[in-house]
Predict the 3D structure of the following.
Amino acid sequence: MLKILAFWIVFMAHTSAQSEVVSVEFKEKSIQFSDAPTLNFLWPAKQAKATLIFIPGGEGRLGITPDRTNLGGFYGNTIKPLSDPKLTRGAFNVVVFDSPVNLPGTDYPTARQSSEHLLRIESVVRHFKEQYALPVWIMGHSNGAVSITEFYKMLQKNQREDLIAGAIFSSGRSGADFNEKTKLPILFLANEKEQCPKSMPARAKAVFDQQQKSNPLKTAYVLIKGGESQPLNPCGSGFHMFYGAAEEAYTAIDQFVFGSQN
């Protein structure tokens, strides 16, 4: 009996940290909204201290299916390690948000300012905050930086800023911005060799400089030095996606959020 109990404890400890797809119901109703649930890919941490919800760039739709067991590329290389104690403190439950609808924009991704998109982010934040009872950080990469800045502005408008604990502004595209009333820890990440004209480091640095002046909480700007180019669209590959520089990126996030903790 004791052997069976011991096996069950080990089994549960192992399976509790397995990746999975989590479906979050979208309860907001409107003829303009899709009623599809929001699917999220989750890498849980065995000893989590916070949850990171990552909003992708591009058109925001990854096409995650319920049977998905892993994510590779940028996701597996750059943000999954934040849940892995072999590579970082392993203190983040890592969630990848997948919009069930495309978030287009020819010159600017205006769909990321839509009520449906921002309310979906809120529903996912609330779901994982309730599930784990831990602080929630949001991270937006490229067009995803528009999502997190607009989401925070919505929280400000509704006086719900305490829903999130901090933000990671990563390879943020031009136009994504926090306002002067922001009171939130923010890490800005950019690659010094960035080749995407919509996400040049000087723009992220300008947003950071403004936040340094007006934001009373911790802010930092980290310029990624390494990486490699790829023979693909520079706004979706290479330096823009921290290709070959993933360790620099996840180490900077880990240090910013947990570096001063025991």
